[in-house]
Write a structure and sequence with these properties.
The protein is of the alpha/beta class. The protein contains four helices and six strands; from the N terminus they run βαβαβαβαββ.
């Protein structure tokens, strides 16, 4: 059994129009939404065995916030250049390349690739747009990362910062 969580980076800043896209940091809203969504993952008892992130500054910042909230060692974050603005096929290649010893993978990346991948893996969801800091968690009966597909993958949950149906768990 494999668990795959796709996390779109939090909202980025457009304050400096001369800044290259890759170098844009989180905006004020992104700095608020990323910890909020990371906390929701923690409440859902998310325990990724591997966090893989795009090299873009906004994705790295989001991944660091998520890792901190989940108690995931920052030094174990895997930075993957191929995830920067990747299409679904490239994201699936990155997933397939992961060690089979990791059963719970969390990827921090970008749209439209993430939205398109969600729709490929869970077509009944018909996701129009994965919002910034949006999260989709899926479970697959595949034994290998390379075998994940619509035929063996089901939705666990979908959440986003403005979700009115926020899960509240009391401990």
């Amino acid at each position: 059994m494999k668990r795959l969580t796709l996390f779109r980076h939090a909202k980025s800043s457009w304050r400096d129009p001369d800044l290259a896209d890759h170098e844009r940091p989180l905006s004020g809203r992104g700095e608020k939404d990323a910890p909020r969504m990371a906390e929701r993952l923690r409440v859902r008892r998310a325990r990724p065995s591997l966090i893989v992130t795009s090299t873009a500054k906004r994705a790295l910042e989001t991944a660091h916030i998520v890792a901190r909230s989940l108690g995931y060692p920052r030094e174990f974050l895997h930075v993957e250049p191929a995830l920067y603005l990747a299409d679904p096929a490239t994201i699936l290649q990155v997933i397939a390349a992961q060690d089979e010893g990791f059963s719970d993978l969390l990827l921090v990346a970008h749209n439209p690739g993430l939205t398109d991948l969600v729709n490929e893996l869970v077509p009944d969801m018909r996701l129009n747009n994965l919002p910034t800091a949006g999260v989709v968690a899926m479970e697959s009966t595949a034994e290998r990362w390379a075998d994940i597909g619509a035929r063996n993958t089901t939705l666990i949950f979908y959440d986003y910062p403005k979700n009115p149906d926020v899960l509240v768990v009391t401990e």
